[in-house]
Structures are given as structure tokens and as C-alpha cells.
Write a structure and sequence with these properties.
- By secondary structure, this protein is of the alpha/beta class.
- The chain folds into 2 domains: about 220 residues, Acetylglutamate kinase-like (Carbamate kinase, 3-Layer(aba) Sandwich); about 140 residues, VC0802-like (2-Layer Sandwich), CATH 3.30.2130.10.
- Helices cover about 40% and strands about 25% of the residues.
- It has 16 helices and 18 strands.
- Strands 3-6-2-1-9-11-12-10 form an 8-stranded mixed sheet, with helices on both faces. A 6-stranded antiparallel sheet has the order 14-15-13-16-18-17.
- Strand 17 and strand 18 form a beta hairpin.
- It is globular and about 75 Å long.
- The protein binds aspartic acid and magnesium ion (MG).
- Magnesium ion binds next to loops.
């Protein structure tokens, strides 16, 4: 039995948290492999370093050293602390070199922002050693995590990572050493770091679980699991005990910040169950995500909402008969890496749903299209995407009727619909001012009654 375990920033954010996490690891039976985030606040600090070329490097190194040593010195002592310090200083020298590097290097940002994990993994490995458990801190390059893609938006190459980890990590596991691997980045074929996007350590952990054929992946965070709705909107929202991969992927993407949305795919591919657990309350059962095909009695499992979006509608006569033009519009938007949350078309319009903050850049791109093909562009700001999730939702007859009936009850107009992209979610757009009411009505009607 191999358990892959991932601990997030708050779970390794202080001496106390690290101590708690080391106990969770030690109490886990069988073989294990661990992936960690940077200590909380560290990655944002590093992003600040990248964004502000005027900062004083000596000061940065000092602050960085202080934050990590504060935790390490509380937990380690004697010879082990000396041994730790030796490795720590080596990594700190590399950190110093990284931040003073050439800012025009395309990999400068990835090199700097991925530094936090190199230190949290080192501390955790030594804390485990101090408790008599053999552990080894491994940076992604030593663990064989291979990535491809552009700077700041890498993706793991699952096949190459599997063969890399078979050579570099599996032998350690066989010797009962617990590998503590850096999350958040892999290295490309030239050995350059590529980060996976903010929050990407969850994805790293799923990649590791896939590569070593883990029996289970545990994502340890600071909440009890996925909820049936945002408790700030629906105070009696309930914890979701169990759901399938598809439902979790939709919820992670559209609303709940529990898990990085890309975490699901690498484990779904190998049918590895995933548990979301709270490292501050390990006795809580968390949420189990697996290949479940079981309808619960209620129609919906959860209702999430993505707010601060805008609809950009492009009008042009008979655009539906000119697919090349639709393709060009999408390409233009993709060129500036803007995420399109939904697309809908009619005979003479194409509508895109994007974040409010991306509207100006998107319009600029679209205006660059030549030849008067576009008749008009309209923008509707401040809308929200409601994501109603339930197993086999679309397979059930009359579901949209029931859901939209409830929305009507909340006196709300639906601006755009994207049903059927996956059979576990019905997504639609409403004005921001109506989000709270719509989520409450759907939760009351299909999940549980709001007090
Ligand atoms: N440390 C990185 C971040 O803060 C990755 C992660 O925590 O998942 O985004
Ligand atoms: Mg996280």
C-alpha cells in the first residue's frame, strides 16, 4: 500500500503545524511519499520579489532565512540541527544567486517563485528524522518531475515523470525512506524550472501519485473538505462525504477553492481515490473523491458560484455560417491567455464569458481584427456563473426545468446557459446582484433547508 500525501502552505506554515504534520505522516501505515507547498506567505513574498525589481536582495535573503530558521530551530537541535544547517546554507546560497539572476531570462520568475518549496521540504524531512523516521528532501529535479510548456504555466509530462520517478524515488520508498518532494514545479528537458500556476502543489501531488501508482492520494489542507455551498452564503451548508471525479473537477474549477482544478485528471487516469483532509483536525473524515457512480437522493451535490465575470457579445450577420471567423475570435483571445469560462453562439452572435479584469485586454485584441467583419461588440459586466453539480445530472429528464424553475422563483433572469459540457454540471449566468439568492434557493430546494 502506497499513500501519496500533500501538505499545503498553512499545514507547514509554522513549527507547530510542521510538528502536527510529521505526526500525521508517521501515523500513516505502509509506504508513503510526501509533496509539500511552501510555508504560507512565502510564495506571495517571492512573487513580490519578482514584481519589484528595486527590492534590496540582502534584505530579502535575511527575511527568508529568518522565517524558515524560526520554525527549524524550534523543532531541531544538536547534531541534526548542525546537519540541517549545512544543507540549509547551501540552498540559501542558491536562493541568493537566483534572486540576483538575470531578470530578462525567461525562466527567472519560475526560478525565484519555486524557491519556497525547496526549504519547506528540507525542514519537514529533518523534523521527521528528529522523530526517528528516515526521510529525504527531494527537489523536483531530483525526483524526476518533468514538465513542458511556457514559463509560469507548465504541465507535467506524465509518462516521463513516471519513468523518472521509478528510477529516482521508488528505490527510496523500497528502503523505507520517506521522500519529501517539492510541489509547484517540474523541470523541462533543459533542466529549467516550470511552475504549475498558483496553488499548483495539489497538481504536483496528483502527478506524483500517478507516477508511482499510489493506492490513494491524500490532500491535507486547512478545511474539512468540499462543502455543498459556500458557508458564507449558506450557513447550514453541509460537508460532502463522497463524490465522483467529474463532480470534484467542476467544483474545483468553478468555485470552491479547496483543490487546484488540475488535481483531478492525473488521479482519474489511474483511478486513484483522492481524499481531502484537514491537517488541523485529522480525525475528521474529509471528502472522498473516487469513481463513484451513485445518485444520492437529492438532485444536487453542491452549488458553486464564480463571481466578477463579464459577457462579451460579438454581433456579425450570419456568423454561425462562418466557423473560420469564430475560430479566429477564439484564437485572438487565446493569444493573450485569457480564460473563457463559457461560449455560446446564435445565428448572428457569439458570446464569451471572461473575468471582469480581462475585459479591456480582450476588447483590445478583438478590435485588432481587420476588415469590418464585426458589426458590434457589447459588454455586460458583473455577472456570475452558477455551477450546479450533481452526479448524472444531465442524464435525468426534466432537471433543467426544475433548476430553472427554482431560479425563476428567485426572480432572476438567466443570461447565458452552458448545459451539458459535462454530465455532472449545469452552468448558467446570472447578474452578480442575484447570486446569493439563487445559490440559497437551489441549496434549499435540492440539498437541504437553509435556516
Ligand atoms: N506555493 C505555491 C503557491 O502558493 C504552490 C501551492 O501552494 O500549491 O501558489
Ligand atoms: Mg493550496
Amino acid at each position: 500500500m502506497i499513500t501519496a500525501m500533500k501538505f499545503g502552505g498553512t499545514s507547514v506554515g509554522s513549527a507547530e503545524a510542521l510538528d502536527r504534520v510529521s505526526k500525521i505522516i508517521i501515523n500513516t501505515e505502509g509506504d508513503k511519499v510526501v509533496v509539500v507547498s511552501a510555508m504560507s506567505g512565502i510564495t506571495s513574498f517571492l512573487v513580490g520579489v519578482v514584481d519589484n525589481p528595486l527590492t534590496d536582495p540582502d534584505g530579502i535573503v535575511e527575511q527568508f532565512r529568518f522565517k524558515h530558521l524560526q520554525a527549524a530551530e524550534e523543532l531541531l537541535s544538536g547534531e541534526l540541527l548542525d546537519e540541517f544547517m549545512e544543507e540549509f546554507e547551501k540552498r540559501l546560497a542558491k536562493f541568493d544567486e537566483a534572486i540576483r539572476g538575470d531578470r530578462s531570462d525567461p525562466y527567472y520568475q519560475d526560478t525565484v517563485v519555486s524557491q519556497g518549496e525547496r526549504f519547506s521540504s528540507l525542514i519537514l524531512a529533518y523534523v521527521l528524522k528528529s522523530k526517528g523516521t528516515e526521510a529525504r528532501a527531494l527537489c523536483s529535479e531530483d525526483a524526476g518531475i518533468i514538465a513542458e510548456g511556457h514559463p509560469l504555466s507548465g504541465s507535467a509530462d506524465l509518462l516521463k515523470t513516471a519513468s523518472g520517478m521509478t528510477m529516482k524515488v521508488k528505490p527510496l520508498i523500497a528502503m523505507e525512506v520517506v521522500p519529501i518532494i517539492t510541489g509547484f514545479y517540474g523541470v523541462n528537458k533543459d533542466g529549467k524550472p516550470l511552475t504549475f500556476g498558483r496553488g499548483g502543489s495539489d497538481y504536483s501531488a496528483a502527478v506524483v501519485a500517478n507516477a508511482i501508482d499510489a493506492d490513494v492520494l491524500e490532500i491535507w489542507t486547512d478545511v474539512d473538505g468540499f462543502m455543498s455551498a459556500d458557508p458564507r452564503i449558506v450557513p447550514n451548508a453541509i460537508k460532502i462525504e463522497e463524490m465522483n471525479f467529474g463532480e470534484a473537477a467542476e467544483l474545483a474549477y468553478f468555485g470552491a477553492k479547496v483543490l487546484h482544478p488540475r488535481t483531478i485528471e492525473p488521479v482519474r487516469l489511474k483511478n486513484i481515490p483522492l481524499k481531502v483532509k484537514n491537517s488541523f483536525r485529522p480525525e475528521e473524515p474529509g471528502t472522498l473523491i473516487h469513481h463513484l457512480r451513485r445518485s444520492k437522493d437529492e438532485l444536487l451535490r453542491s452549488v458553486a458560484a464564480k463571481t466578477d465575470l463579464s459577457i462579451i457579445t460579438i454581433s456579425s450577420a450570419e456568423i454561425a455560417f462562418r466557423p473560420a471567423m469564430v475560430a479566429r475570435l477564439i484564437e485572438k483571445i487565446a493569444d493573450i491567455d485569457v480564460i473563457i469560462y463559457s461560449i455560446s453562439t446564435s445565428l448572428s452572435t457569439v458570446a464569451f464569458l471572461v473575468h471582469n479584469n480581462d475585459v479591456t485586454a480582450t476588447l483590445k485584441q478583438l478590435n485588432g481584427l481587420n476588415g469590418g467583419e464585426i458589426e458590434r461588440i457589447d459588454v455586460k459586466n458583473d455577472v456570475a456563473l452558477i455551477c450546479a453539480v450533481g452526479d448524472d445530472l444531465i442524464g435525468k429528464t426534466g432537471v433543467s426545468g426544475e433548476i430553472f424553475g427554482a431560479v425563476k422563483e428567485a426572480n432572476t433572469n438567466v443570461e447565458m446557459i452552458s448545459e451539458g459540457a459535462s454530465d455532472v454540471s449545469l452552468n448558467f449566468v446570472v447578474p452578480m446582484s442575484r447570486v446569493v439568492d439563487v445559490v440559497k434557493v437551489l441549496h434549499d430546494r435540492f440539498i437541504g433547508v437553509t435556516q
